Structures
1.
Amino acid sequence: MNVNAPYVKPFQNDAVPLQEWLSHGKSWIESALGEALPAADQRPRILHEAMRYACLGGGKRLRGILAMTICQTLGAEARRALRPALALEAFHAYTLIHDDLPCMDDDDIRRGKPATHIQFGEANALLAGDALLTLACQWLAETHAPLPHPPAALVTELTTAGGSQGVIGGQVEDLAAETLPPDEEMLVYIHTEKTARLIACACRMGAISAGACASKVDLLGRYGLHLGLAFQMIDDLLDATADTRALGKPAGSDAKNQKLTTVRLWGLEKSRAEAERHTRMALDLLEQLECPAGRLQDLTRHLLMRDF
Amino acid sequence: MNVNAPYVKPFQNDAVPLQEWLSHGKSWIESALGEALPAADQRPRILHEAMRYACLGGGKRLRGILAMTICQTLGAEARRALRPALALEAFHAYTLIHDDLPCMDDDDIRRGKPATHIQFGEANALLAGDALLTLACQWLAETHAPLPHPPAALVTELTTAGGSQGVIGGQVEDLAAETLPPDEEMLVYIHTEKTARLIACACRMGAISAGACASKVDLLGRYGLHLGLAFQMIDDLLDATADTRALGKPAGSDAKNQKLTTVRLWGLEKSRAEAERHTRMALDLLEQLECPAGRLQDLTRHLLMRDF
């Protein structure tokens, strides 16, 4: 990894404006992912091309940036959370590939370009997803967590959050909810497991990478859950109100797929209010952090205002 | 785990006949898997039912038994490799679910019953596979390897063997080979990556669980590669010659799917001779182990003679 790359230092500088912070963080993660993923000319080429296609050249890198920002907020160097950040982004890319498959949400566009199965065929897309999940765990196994955490703590974090009682459980109920009447308990379950769990996991992994104590890791996990719920509510609002080009994925696809969303359950106004409520709860938790967290506060408020 | 269960002691007794050894090992793994997998009444139920359906009630448990037998051969208690054995079996079940999907090999029967996607639908089958892969990594992260290995060595083993340059790479080329002329180099690549790598991984994990030195781990990994190649060649022979009921999966499906197999490339006689050659090479490696390995030798010869 080139620690002198032009985006590394600005990302580590707490004084730069948030937009620059985000854009440098995104470049750093993008570049490190490009180096860490298997090269496209390695056998089997089509698989490695599909993995790189799905991982690179798009995405906000929110999960990776959160892990690195939290690590730095807690006084450790941001690059200590770089490897976890790459694993989070590879994991996130795997979930998007599988979610877009015809037997799941059947979406053809992702991050402004054809979905992986449109570009490489269903079998290669499915296997590229499998390979990214496997690679994420491999990267984390090579990254020993600092004390007081057990060495394999980062693998445990990702596999717990990403398993049958986390992200995958959320996706199962998300599909099941398409044929059921709207239900608030189910909506909260889906948003918590499918979206907020991985964002909370990113926050926990950032704290673990900084060597934070268990109570700080838990505090930041709770922060991440509220942030993730607010994030998903804004996502639902954008899907209902923005256009496809701005989103990079088909607008209105939730309604087309009869997805159970905040907008469908609560309408626009209450959805907005709920997103604001969870943002406030996330900010309240940051107050308890007992260290300057201005950058995290800015990031939290920014996500409520985003239009992409 | 109930270490007084009726199958535990016979499995640890080097004097019992091989068939008893295998059947007790199978019962031990089956029972421990049943305990370790999420209960079917935990949310989301359909996902946990699908995971249990795909993992339990069938299979030879060859990979798990190999890991435990090697651990015991090297002088450690077999149960030290139990957790890795469960992870190997969960991982293997995930590959079978995904391989059977319509966009892959499109097979409807597995282990003598309807494939997971026939029983639970494509989306739930795909997600059950994802969840089993995730769970396998989670179990291994909780199982610290003994010295001289790094604590997360078992996760590294499984994710390296199971990744894009291992099992998944083999599956990609296996699908690609269906539309290409038969080619020996490609056949060896597919058999090595798709089948032998995971069997070699099981052997390495058994050795690591016993705290063996790196050179013994490598020796047993090479043993596992030859054993795995012989195993796959016998599989190809059985697919071409046995009937569906004996196999527990559709006989002749290789020919139907235009699979690149040893039988298609070499015919029955040379395939048999190659399986015998790899079995001999596996046995030669066991000679170098410098400890009594009668049980492993019996197991190695048995796999050449199997008719299921």
2.
Amino acid sequence: MQRNIKLVIEYDGSNYHGWQTQPNAITIQEIIEGKLAIITQKKVNLVASGRTDTGVHALGQVANFYTQSTIAAESLGKSLNSLLPPDIVIRKAEELEESFHARFSARSKVYLFIILNDKIPSAIYRNYSWHLPFNLDIDKMRRSASFLIGEHDFSCFKSSDSENTDPIRDLMDINLFRNKDRFIHIRIEANGFLKYMVRNIVGTLMDVGRNKISVSEFNAIFQSKDRTKAGVTAPPQGLFLKEVKY
Amino acid sequence: MQRNIKLVIEYDGSNYHGWQTQPNAITIQEIIEGKLAIITQKKVNLVASGRTDTGVHALGQVANFYTQSTIAAESLGKSLNSLLPPDIVIRKAEELEESFHARFSARSKVYLFIILNDKIPSAIYRNYSWHLPFNLDIDKMRRSASFLIGEHDFSCFKSSDSENTDPIRDLMDINLFRNKDRFIHIRIEANGFLKYMVRNIVGTLMDVGRNKISVSEFNAIFQSKDRTKAGVTAPPQGLFLKEVKY
């Protein structure tokens, strides 16, 4: 009998070419599938809630796979952790009903983006934040972000190479708050994300924060649906896939 | 004329064999001295507040050096940061009076040790914490730690290979607190530290926290001045030299 196993996965994306298996590059999917094949003695196909790009981290990526193995889910998780490199950790493994699908069953995903807003860069946080040395007006960034809430066409924040994707997404929540003075945390929840969407939103919010564009100009860019009008793509190392909700 | 420059340095110790220059191993001192030689065009000798061991981090290590260079201190700091690898950052550079000595002028040093107290290890924090999966009674650890405050013989917490050092130190403060549920932060301030002293204190406090020894047994170990009675040496990656006070 086929069993359906759900994994909740934390990873440090620094040393990987993102989640999805690809030729000639080490990815997180490939590493976990390899260890699962050792444990279950069969080739395993992992389905994730979505890809994460090179250098992006996850606190709670979710993936599922079908197996005929009779090993209890919790034991599978422990065996995986004993075989996986320390920058990939299975936080939870559980057996679910056959219909559960890590991608299609997801109701929403939560991303966290961390800005290090300090004159001096940080040695410790260099792989886990985007260093921005100039003053940022977080209140203006908040007012701009509020335009994004709801069901909208997010074309202006898509990646330039993803023309054929439906650009409508329902963004449920976006919050910005300072953490320990020098960090700004941006938490975004949506029913789905276009490629680079969070990083493009953050890059454009930065332009508001440093007074390169106004709050109404931010909104005009958003309404234009024109990718070329928005700001830079924030770098991957500040981005964390925090949670997938089902 | 000789100028005396003080540096405040943050580093991620993960990729270094500690602070102090040694043969056949890359150290933080050697990296910074090399960049200073390029900038000032003279060999430079850096004096630090003290060594940090392999894998130990610093948020505020302090070092000073003498130079005949006329470059302003702030510019020296910026030039250093442009040459240094991203896991070593100069947070501040300032010119001080000739008598300032990073080691002998220090009044106290503050170390932070981070325990990840969670059933599951962490991919993101693996290099910045000590993972302890069992329950820890933080109140018992606090009561034990309070015995350490004041001027004492810390022989039981010295490294086994440091027999000839004066073991008397004045420990001004030790605090333990939970941070975001799964972390325990231990902050220790003293006028100086023996080799491995913080890590041996933390290893022995762990034994109290998991009820392997009682609070009074902890105190008996401390009073015995016998290194062989104390607990294990906690691993370096949880340790941060947070601040040096002058």
3.
Amino acid sequence: MIKVGILGATGYAGAETARILSSHPDFEITAAASRSFSGKAFSDVYANMKGVLDITLDPPDSAGLALKADCFICALPHAASQSAVADLHKAGKKVVDLSADYRYSSTDVYESTYGVSHEYPNLLKKAVYGLPELYRKEITSSKIIANPGCYPTCSILALAPLVSKGLLEADTIVINAVSGVSGAGRKANINYQFCETDGNFTPYKVTGHRHTTEIEEQLSVISGDKINVGFTPHLAPFKRGMVATIYAKPSAVLSQDALDNIYNEYYRDEYFIRVRSASDIPSVKAVAGTNFADICPIYDYRLGRIILISAIDNLGKGAASQAVQNLNIMYGLDEKAGIGSMGLYI
Amino acid sequence: MIKVGILGATGYAGAETARILSSHPDFEITAAASRSFSGKAFSDVYANMKGVLDITLDPPDSAGLALKADCFICALPHAASQSAVADLHKAGKKVVDLSADYRYSSTDVYESTYGVSHEYPNLLKKAVYGLPELYRKEITSSKIIANPGCYPTCSILALAPLVSKGLLEADTIVINAVSGVSGAGRKANINYQFCETDGNFTPYKVTGHRHTTEIEEQLSVISGDKINVGFTPHLAPFKRGMVATIYAKPSAVLSQDALDNIYNEYYRDEYFIRVRSASDIPSVKAVAGTNFADICPIYDYRLGRIILISAIDNLGKGAASQAVQNLNIMYGLDEKAGIGSMGLYI
Amino acid sequence: MIKVGILGATGYAGAETARILSSHPDFEITAAASRSFSGKAFSDVYANMKGVLDITLDPPDSAGLALKADCFICALPHAASQSAVADLHKAGKKVVDLSADYRYSSTDVYESTYGVSHEYPNLLKKAVYGLPELYRKEITSSKIIANPGCYPTCSILALAPLVSKGLLEADTIVINAVSGVSGAGRKANINYQFCETDGNFTPYKVTGHRHTTEIEEQLSVISGDKINVGFTPHLAPFKRGMVATIYAKPSAVLSQDALDNIYNEYYRDEYFIRVRSASDIPSVKAVAGTNFADICPIYDYRLGRIILISAIDNLGKGAASQAVQNLNIMYGLDEKAGIGSMGLYI
Amino acid sequence: MIKVGILGATGYAGAETARILSSHPDFEITAAASRSFSGKAFSDVYANMKGVLDITLDPPDSAGLALKADCFICALPHAASQSAVADLHKAGKKVVDLSADYRYSSTDVYESTYGVSHEYPNLLKKAVYGLPELYRKEITSSKIIANPGCYPTCSILALAPLVSKGLLEADTIVINAVSGVSGAGRKANINYQFCETDGNFTPYKVTGHRHTTEIEEQLSVISGDKINVGFTPHLAPFKRGMVATIYAKPSAVLSQDALDNIYNEYYRDEYFIRVRSASDIPSVKAVAGTNFADICPIYDYRLGRIILISAIDNLGKGAASQAVQNLNIMYGLDEKAGIGSMGLYI
């Protein structure tokens, strides 16, 4: 068994990582750290895990933790991950980082987007953007993986097949995204209290969400040209899951058949990408609790536009299970190990 | 007290109409008809109304019902309203019809959209589209009001200020709309069972929802030119409410200030339209149970685009309370009577 | 219009009071105080009230507030109400207090239950327990009304008809109660975050909830003998509403008919009490948003036991609308004014 | 791999069984039958399973199905299971039946409870009640297992430690139970539509639920004396999970320590029973998606009563995962295989 440690183990993404790894055939959790709950058992914080993962939570001392495991998943908040990843890397450990700290190719965009300076520009160059369907080979040989954001995962996977072929007209892409409440993390905040959220639905950060630059950087790499996108997220009253409805104009004559062929071909060998049709449209329920990304390209003949529907679990393919997918790749394991089947329909 | 009757009183829109009218200062419900529950008390079907509205439900005989009230709200399904409205009109009664049957200016678009023929083209010409903020004067003098659809109400009110001034570039309008589950009506359908809907979120009828033609007809009238729109609805796990997030390119140089001025000016005298700002963004919770439409225009400086957020209660301003607003206008009453304050935040 | 002020106006019970009073035909809100949001508009905190109640929130200075209105609803936390009510009473104002501070007949039980000392024992003697169906006459002539707790309202109204006749065997009463999440108030607390509460259900304070002593004191008064009850509350994932399922053994031979007669007779003249039958069982949906208490007595012939089902809206009959009912009585108004019809089924 | 077939595979319990078995290390699903959807792929009905379980659904022909697998889980409705189980048994197959058809020791109680006659009294004698914690040995050697009902599983596991020792006073047991909506099954029914269920909470079948006789039969066996219980179920707005709050009087002097010892001792070797304390009270969230039963005994010193809190997943330990636990036992596999860790907290 490979020894794995988790930093930030009691946030939602960290806890989901712990839940997945606790029944993974190849990994054993030997360390789990939490600033708020160190000294308690993990199962004191997550009652569902009693008898399953009762490990005592460590304080968030990354140098000390490095002694306890071979590899780490770092689920700390943005900025806090910078030095933690650096410490673990220095100790020779493989790290999958769930924060934004190592996702950008340059410090400039990171710093202007997140409003903090980056102290480890050299490490940033070593990190690989952990979207396995696009960067599997690079992930295999890297020791720092920057796990993508949830909205970027959902958006990029949907757009990549068309953007990579230059089939979308520049500057027509609009991403309308909807997330479940777990995306806001596990913290006491009146806005996410049950009585405020249940029965509600609202857009937020209509023009300035931080994931916009991450999406644009990746699409620009895929395209070869600079791509800007409109991105507007919304909060909906469900716990986990995410749907992006993406609108764009094609730059060439297309058809539904052409779209279907492009998507089925592009993702032919990808177990975790399910190309769906309009009669079998993606939904949160089909992906919640899984590592699947369900994608449906639709050609609107009347208006000559393209609509892409993309659904993932924001805590799964958008965070924890994608992190485990990356770990599996880094260790040359079956990419599906521990994450092949985990959703609950009900 | 004016005597009012309700046809289709036990569907969600009909029942909501009954609930509002049961405490309206100027109307008395003297007839309520239901195909499924005739012979029962209204409060046998809606337990909340016990002691408030115990009227016995009539069978759906529009000619017979005409004898029982001065005016009617008709909440029947599409197609079924055609003859019911005709019967009531023939009997000299004022009618507000919640179906699509009298919403279009020509039978052609109606027939191709709804797949049924229109048997009363002459009545169709007499009907007025019941969006009071646009057609208040015509409503005053009409005896048949076609109450707008929920998505059209939400979309048209948001777009009218810009479309009426020609400020949007043709064929760039994309309406991404999200509705609560009550929009599907009160019927047994596995897709809307609690276990299927709770925790789920999904687009539906991505390119061909019937409200598209209704929105396009009204926007074209407002604009003076033919306007096509992309319209994609989604189903979200809340009971009542609706949000449209609308994307478009301006046809002239604009700014946030300019947008704010245009909207505040356009709706200056409208009690039920609340122009909001990005820091006070519309949400379902702010409009659920009310007749308000909350609208927020946002200028995206980075991309030179416009984003409009519009929220209504699909059963309120999108159906029942707008019907009562129309009735109030038809009778020269205070437009707010009975619908001035009805929302529950929690 | 009678001038009314609200203290603690931005908690859920205070805000619900404000919502009700804002459309009450006889009251005008002239003051609303909030410790957390003073200086803001009420509608900045509750977006639904924009254009309906935009009053600027006062700081919580009860002496100063006394100058602004004729009567007050005090929705402060327990202990904080003591001096606020005293200040307002000293200024000659009528007060309905939603806290527990003036609910008990003696300071002893209050102090041992709430763990704070009572500084105004003389005022405590003047206060009347504001359950109109039991104490209407006393409410009429009192200037301090202690509005009952939600669980006590729900439990006492169900038990009073049998307890008042000595028909229940001593010490067999078990109250199993379930509340919506708004009962926990409007505060940031991880336990009541959407992701923690949605999909969950749990008992809490299984043997020691503070409302136990309030229920026991009132039942003992009704009975003439000391009555102890088992009381176990549960938290369920809905926003507003409450159901008590009460089990007891009868002390005499009874039947379903006898039970029905007792309840219908006892509440014959009470508009807000709806006696229901097993085929028309009380539910949260039938009372949410209303001032009704729905009660159903059931005789279990097989086991010779009695089961009482009682449902109220914890924020309505359990707090805000009952407070307004009390105000109506204190001023000799129609008891139903402003609260006769306010529920949403959907 | 052992070949397993599922009858009634598209109901909620059947589908959950399919989901669990699709990733079980020792079983391979070789047949899945559905009356409503035969001919379709399983993943056409449950979109989450696309790419995971795409098997074509068979028509419900039990004799034909018998050729396709070594053992079967039968998730048909009550009465329909009788002959299906008989056919499979005749063909020499091991069967776990989720219906009530083989749960009772005599046909009399079954027939009076379910209102149908039992055509296979001889098979009934061969069937073992599949509660592994009580009947593990018998399960090992039986070929027909009657999987217990959800409410009985939840109630019996909580009461067994005390009832087996005669520590409860006869006829004082009251079981107040609350179930999620999936307990009603997957069928179109207005009562379980999202708009009817969300925000609602209601008791049902207050004195006559069919699981009462099943609970009483098992408790009587455990006790050695005839035991009657009061049992009142409630429907709450969550999808899966169940909590029983059980009230009883002890027949001897007890204490919290004594209770804790009794429960910890009784379930010392049971992985799937987690004895909890009042500070760590059972909840739906801790068991949803798992095979755990969380049980907490509480001694109410003030009233000298006992309160037991018991939580399970109605689709898990109350149906599908308990069925798999039974299958594991029947085949001598690790009892936790495939069901050791499956819950989602969020």
